[in-house]
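Why does residue order matter? Because the sequence determines the fold. Keep that principle in mind as you read this record.
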Amino acid sequence: MEKLDLKLSWKVYLLLVLVAVGSATASALLNLSEFMKSLFNLPVIGALSGMIVQIFRDQAAHERNILMQQKQQDYSLAVTSHMANVIFDKHVEFCEAYINALTNALFRLWASGPSRIALDVANDLKKVRQDRPTWIPKEIETKLIKFENGIAQIGIAHFAMDDLPPGEERSRYIRQGSNMFKIITGVKDEDSKELKDIAASRVKKYLQGVLGIEELFNLRKKAISEAISRS
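Structure:
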């Protein structure tokens, strides 16, 4: 890190010194009463106090500049380092693969309805995630596991009811599978945030947010608009 030198406000210090020296000289050389000398000494005290205050201000400004430099270097390291670029490229690759698999999963779910096929769909999504374990942060992995488990519950419910005779217990499994199917596909919007977050549309939006798709699109649109207005 480049060392920052303490920058002093020399003009301020020079002015304060001139005031102090001038007042002290006048008080010493002029034939004045004690009362007038005390009046001339007031600027000296004020100038010395001003110097102390200015030293504190310069030190505070210096520390603030150091903090800003540290933050800027942290930002540069996070955004422009080679490893940061590699990780971003890997995230782009993973998010694209997972969103494609998610879109295919929705087609399969809509085609089959709430059924045991949902287990195969969940496994296919799980495979996409597990193929890239090195590059997926814990936050993303946790979010996607909840989504995959939600899809798997649809299939598990239909497996569980296969050996059950018609009745309340079998109907309960049917309701569970159907309810989860509606949540995943977005047909039903749950009050629970945890259940809302496993809707396929929300998972897709979350992965796009990881890459900053909306932000980059808006920045590009703004840049184009400004370029057109300047021309």
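The chain has a mean pLDDT of 75.
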